[in-house]
Write a structure and sequence with these properties.
30% of the residues lie in helices and 21% in strands. By secondary structure, the chain is α/β, with parallel strands linked by helices.
Length: 417
């Protein structure tokens, strides 16, 4: 029996595990991270490699360690301060290499791999005894790091930190065309092609198209639905402040359409940071990259190539088409839906989890708080437009750590009697 199991070993699960050990009386043996990847942050590493990310959009104080200036001190102590990239009218941002090296340092220093059980959670249910605990059913017995070959785990509480759950947005027009891949779903930038067509209009599409063009290895075309729009960060930095979140978001009922739309309007989705946009435009001016605007109407394979028909009547053709079209809605993830149905948890507009704004506990349909807590993109209705970012992990951990400490106090007292 665990006191808490974190489902997901990405940025949120990695950060939250440290906060629970530091800010609560939770012992290591009572905490577990369940994630199917071989190592923590593996999904983030793979996505960064697929789009050849060079630097982060977040500032140097947003990382997986719990000390705000830990990454800066790490860089300065290793003569890598030049990897904190200056940004006009914005704090410096770390290179991907520096961010990951510091993350590895934090993970090793805190022995977080010792908390990691390599397995996938298939479902979460209540035991027949109805003693307030949860049972997590696993897809396999893990790799032996914790509880070898145990197909289920019992815990007093659980935190869903699954990100977008490995589901990506495939436009309807791409259905049935097997040679169209998503940048985060099996694409390898090292594979050569006669030419590459990148479809998307945000930071990932711009990053991938620019890096491929910089190699000067093959013709590259970027197809965006609209003119590329510039934004330094994903939302106005005021949304980092919890008081601002309470005033602008929590004034609407939990799970309401107003909350969904407030978050959507606040996010700078499908935008490109200024320095990356400058690199992209330079590549286009030098003839290493072509940019085409327009909605895609349909796609089909012709003689080993994929031909895209645009709404304006134009046509694009490439041997290798790559989608950089973002994530599928996490609220509609089948695992999220199954957990909500099994535990009778309340959902709002478009499936948004209805959370307690002070604790991030997912409310039961009966009105009470369940032992399931939420961090990451699933918590956008409470944490706001930065919910899925590193800073969102910090805001969520502030509340989840306090809530779990309060929940544990009566349970510990009961066990001691």
């Amino acid at each position: 029996m665990y006191d808490c199991v974190i489902v997901g070993g990405g940025i949120h699960g990695t950060y939250l595990s440290q906060r629970l050990l530091e800010d609560t009386d939770l012992e290591r043996e009572n905490l577990l991270i369940v994630d199917p990847h071989e190592r923590l942050l593996e999904s983030f590493r793979r996505k960064a490699a697929a789009c050849e990310m060079d630097e982060l959009r977040s500032t140097f104080v947003h990382h997986v360690g719990t000390e705000p200036f830990g990454l800066e001190n790490f860089a300065e102590g290793r003569n890598r301060a030049d990897e904190l990239r200056s940004t006009p009218d914005y704090p410096p941002r770390p290179t991907l290499s520096l961010f990951l090296d510091y993350a590895n340092y934090v993970i090793d220093r805190n022995d977080l791999p010792g908390l990691h059980r390599r397995a996938a959670v298939e479902s979460i249910r209540r035991p027949i005894t109805e003693d307030g605990t949860l049972v997590l059913e696993l897809a396999d017995g893990g790799d032996g790091s914790r509880e070898l070959h145990t197909p289920r785990i019992r815990t007093r509480s659980c935190v869903l930190a699954i990100g977008h759950g490995g589901r990506y947005r495939y436009p309807d027009w791409a259905a049935g065309v097997d040679s169209i891949t998503h940048v985060w779903d099996g694409f390898d930038p090292e594979t050569r092609a006669d030419d590459t067509l990148v479809v998307g209009g945000g930071i990932t599409a711009a990053q991938l198209a620019t890096c491929l063009a910089d190699r000067d290895r093959e013709p590259v075309t970027l197809c965006s639905r609209h003119d590329l729009e510039e934004a330094t960060v994903e939302a106005n930095p005021r949304w980092i402040n919890w008081n601002h979140i309470e005033r602008q978001l929590h004034r609407h009922p939990p799970g309401s359409r107003a909350r969904v739309e407030t978050v959507r309007e606040a996010r700078n989705d499908a935008t490109v940071p200024p320095l990356l946009l400058e690199r992209l435009e330079t590549a286009a001016d030098e003839g290493r990259l072509s940019i085409r605007n327009g909605d895609v109407r349909s796609a089909r394979e012709v003689d080993g190539r994929v031909r895209l028909l645009l709404e304006d009547g134009g046509c694009l053709s490439a041997e290798r088409p790559v989608l950089a079209t973002g994530f599928a809605p996490v609220f509609e993830h089948p695992f999220v839906e199954s957990v909500a149905d099994e535990l009778d948890l309340e959902r709002g507009y478009r499936g948004m989890p209805v959370l307690d704004d002070e604790t991030l506990a997912w409310r039961e349909s009966s009105g009470g708080d369940s032992p399931v807590f939420v961090s990451g993109a699933l918590a956008a209705g409470t944490v706001g437009p930065f919910a899925g970012n590193v800073v969102g992990a910090r805001r969520a951990a502030d509340r989840i750590a306090r809530a779990l400490e309060r929940r544990r106090a009566p349970a510990v007292a009961c066990r001691c009697r």
